[in-house]
Specification:
- This protein is α/β, with parallel strands linked by helices.
- The protein has one domain (9-223): Alpha/Beta hydrolase fold, catalytic domain (Rossmann fold, 3-Layer(aba) Sandwich), CATH 3.40.50.1820.
- The protein is 28% helix and 26% strand.
- It has helices spanning 88-109, 123-134, 160-163, 182-194, 211-223, and strands at 9-10, 17-20, 30-35, 56-62, 65-68, 71-73, 77-80, 83-86, 116-121, 141-145, 167-173, 198-203.
- The strands form three sheets. An eight-stranded mixed sheet has the order 1-2-4-3-9-10-11-12, sandwiched between helices.
- The longest helix is centred in the middle third of the chain and has 22 residues, at 88-109.
């Protein structure tokens, strides 16, 4: 059973709303920021941290775009015959806001950048990659679960010298009907090109986080400490 989340809070700098998992220690040693997919919300993410130690500050963030009751997103996207088409300005706004929030959380709780990881599912994974690849000095690594790396991010990716210390976990369903597994292979190739150490794991599932994917994610997280 997932540990319950705290009340919804709003960061005054980024404007983003978030919740902290109630089991966080008074003085956490590390931070895991979790980002939901399109049409979901922050309450659907804490289970991804189940199995982590209590000295981890687990923060689940709500996307700034309201799609409907309990449904949020980081940017609007349309799935076309030529692939996903995004509203790039919204993705950029969310990227900057998330970087600001991560820095605010680190300052407020005294957590070092090399003890901070950002991860997410689908569109949340997209934003995790966007934050880490554009601001690698702010985090130790990122988890890209059933997502992709936006081509629109290319002009904002940090230098290879800054990316060298970053770690990444890329996981994808081989049967994904929302974002085909080819996106995982593209992410793998780009991270190789950028010199970002990473793990690529594929699973015989659709667009979802399976139990083996969850277990491998936790194993990867543990390897960073």
């Amino acid at each position: 059973m997932s540990i319950p989340l705290g009340t919804l809070q709003q960061d005054p700098v980024s404007g983003l709303q978030y919740r902290i998992r109630q089991s966080a220690a008074a003085h956490p040693a590390r931070c895991l920021v979790l980002l939901h997919g399109v049409g979901s919300n922050e309450a659907h993410m804490p289970a991804l941290a189940d199995g982590m130690s209590d000295d981890t500050l687990v923060v689940t963030v709500r996307g700034p775009l309201v799609l409907g009751p309990g449904q949020f997103a980081w940017f609007r996207v349309a799935f076309t015959a030529n692939g996903p088409r995004i509203v790039a300005e919204e993705a950029e706004h969310s990227r900057f806001a998330l970087i600001a929030l991560v820095q605010q959380l680190q300052a407020a709780h005294g957590i070092a950048t090399d003890k901070t990881v950002v991860a997410g599912f689908s569109q949340g994974g997209i934003m995790s990659a966007s934050v880490a690849l554009s601001a690698p000095l702010a985090v130790a690594g990122f988890g890209l679960l059933c997502g992709r790396i936006l081509p629109e991010l290319q002009p904002h990716i940090a230098s290879k010298a800054q990316l060298v210390a970053l770690q990444a976990f890329v996981a994808h369903g081989e049967l994904d009907t929302k974002l085909p597994v080819d996106w995982a292979h593209k992410s793998h190739a780009l991270l190789d090109e950028l010199g970002v150490p990473h793990t690529l794991q594929l699973y015989p599932v659709d667009h979802t986080i399976s139990a083996p994917m969850h277990a491998d994610f936790l194993h990867w997280l543990a390897s960073l400490t």
